[in-house]
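Task: sequence design from structure.
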């Protein structure tokens, strides 16, 4: 089981693909969702760090 702690939330435009860049030296998770739900207006970005494995 993995345990993460959320440390950041922000919104970007749908064309902001740089948010998907991977950093292999970090143990973190990036969740992407639509804001408002069910639309393509903005993307909600949730960043979390691995704290326990």
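Answer:
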């Amino acid at each position: 089981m993995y345990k993460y702690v959320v440390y950041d939330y922000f919104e970007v435009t749908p064309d902001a693909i740089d948010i998907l860049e991977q950093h292999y030296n970090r143990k973190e998770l990036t969740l992407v969702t639509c804001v408002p739900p069910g639309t393509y207006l903005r993307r909600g970005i949730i960043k979390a760090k691995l704290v326990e494995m």
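Residues 3-16+26-52 form one domain.
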